[in-house]
Amino acid sequence: MHTCSASTGASSVTSGLDLHPRSPDNGLVTPLRPLSARCLVSASVCKADIVTPPLAPARPGKLPTAASVAPIALPELSIGGIALESPFLQAALSGYSDWAMRVMARRYGAAYSVCEVMLDRFVREVKGTCRTRHHLMVTDEEHPVGAQLMGADPADFAPAALRLADAGFDVIDINFGCPVKRVLGRCRGGYHLSQPSVAIEIIHRVRDALPPAIPVTVKLRSGINESDESRDRFFTILRAAFDAGIAAATVHGRTVEQRYNGPSNWEFLRHVKQQFPDRTIIGSGDLFSADACLRMLTETGVDGVSIARGAIGNPWIFQHARVLARDGILSPPPSVHQQAHTLREHFELAAHACGAQRALATMRKFAIKYARSHPHHVHVRNAFATAKNVDQWQAVLEKWYAADAPGCYPLVNEVAPERVVG
Ligand SMILES: Cc1cc2nc3c(=O)[nH]c(=O)nc-3n(C[C@H](O)[C@H](O)[C@H](O)COP(=O)(O)O)c2cc1C
What would the pLDDT profile of 154-187 be if each residue is shown by its tens digit? Predict the structure, then answer.
């Protein structure tokens, strides 16, 4: 029986969540500083304009370099009956993995993508208005694509799952990972890791409601916290989930209490895969470069990797990972002209989904991240952050992307985002 007293909290705007995360440098406008000439184009890692203090990449010492590594044989990955062409997947990202980002990810080499999380009630009630209809938008080009559900009451999940399947999503994923306080307070997301019986009931309800051809998957963090009790609950849920017929589990190697502090525990991912050698386990956490994606596969044995923050404004990461695995060579970062092309392509998709004005608001968040690949990234980021209309947006492109130059690998500079799910 579900006992959370706060579970009736009103849901909100767009996807039913008012979580649209502000990633750390989102909207941040730092004063312009003189350009330094320290762009290490030869190493293809741009160190110009780094905001001090430059944080270490998630895996220190593993900044991408042009060095080659031994090619690796990639694991074959299927989700239920859906065979994927590679193990490099676009993660669910609230506020980001909308239709446009998913299409971009697929065009740039992701084998599969997951929509940003949606509340069960929102999915059931969403109307086809121009403000909201893009949430259920699925097009031919993006298959296979997953939708993700979050909620409190097991009874609310099945009707929502059916609606998502009707909308054309190929896989239904259940979120047991969101660490946002307000979400936990309403007994949603990561909260379910503390109550295996409710989590298991949700899985059964969704699995039983959907046709067998539609795979059901779960996304979990490694537990509520590091305690043995929490770990036992994690395994209780995962074992029951596989027994109930889920096709795959994505595991983020951080606990709910940990949020984004500290590294993702890849050792835990390795342990999970060892416990479930015949099941499909997808790893998540600290995948900021092609190299990191390959290392997660080889170091943990997971079947696939779910690329999250590392893909925001960096859709090239999927192709780079594929080439690195196949040829052992890290592709050069996209040139400034290639970046401009990609930004325009992304903007057009966003405008197609929700109109140019609304697209501008979303695209500002992305552009701030795209700017990390530009040799003058702070200037470009600030210019995008202050673009108030489409003309100003175009002007930024015309000014900063007119002259071609080698691009840079984004220097990962992530700090703990406070308001994200996962
Ligand atoms: C801005 C943001 C939004 C996220 N939204 C979701 C989401 O909707 N569903 C989900 O399962 N995980 C979500 N996550 C978690 C990511 O999918 C991923 O598990 C996590 O970021 C760890 O991977 P990373 O360290 O490579 O970013 C989100 C993370 C971030 C940073």
Answer: 999 999 999 999 999 999 999 999 999 999 999 9
Domain boundaries, the chain: 77-327
Q: What CA–CA distance (Å, rounded) separates 354 from 100?
A: 10
Query: Quick one: pLDDT at residue 70?
Result: 80
Closest alpha carbon to 161 in 174, 152, 143, 177? 174
Q: Write down the pLDDT at residue 19.
A: 53
Distances (CA, A) of 236 to 109, 176, 240, 266, 274: 35, 13, 6, 20, 15
DSSP percent split of the chain into helix, strand, coil, nearest 5? 40, 10, 45
Q: Is 95 in the pocket of ligand 1 (CB under 6 A)?
A: yes
Question: What pTM value is reported for the model?
Answer: 0.87
The residue among 314, 335, 316, 344 whose CA lies nearest residue 405 is 335
Confidence of residue 71 (pLDDT cuts 50, 70, 90): confident
pLDDT value at residue 222: 98
Instruction: Give nearest CA residue, ligand 1 atom 12.
Output: 422
3-state secondary structure of 159: helix
Q: Whose CA is nearest to atom 5 of ligand 1?
A: 93
- CA-closest candidate to residue 413, choices 30, 50, 38: 50
Q: Is 1 exposed, middle or buried (0-12, 13-18, 19+ CB in 10 A)?
A: exposed
CATH topology for 77-327?
A: TIM Barrel (3.20.20)
Q: Ligand 1 test: best mutation among 22, 418, 420, most atoms within 8 Å of CB?
A: 420
